[in-house]
Amino acid sequence: MSAINVFPIPFYVFLSATLVSYNVNVFGQPNSSVFALGVVVGSMIIFGLYLKFFNSKSEEDSFILKNINYVIGGVTSVISLLTIYQLFQ
Question: CB 3.0-4.6 Å disulfide test: which of 24, 47, 68, 69 passes with 19?
Fold first, then answer.
């Protein structure tokens, strides 16, 4: 999921560079407001889809999904203990 979040950065850089090379002024006030509004509306739609997807999960989820915080905490604890052990050797 985090890899997908990286894709907009090169897109906006490439789009801005392309528009500047064609002398199109897109950094003015009306364009910035429309862009900000689009970001807000797009984020609301995506977050709504996330909520719809995760709320539709059944009660019969697996053990890992039900206890994901404990799983992540356990993995982090093991890694931190190994790191502390290696630091003091």
Answer: 24
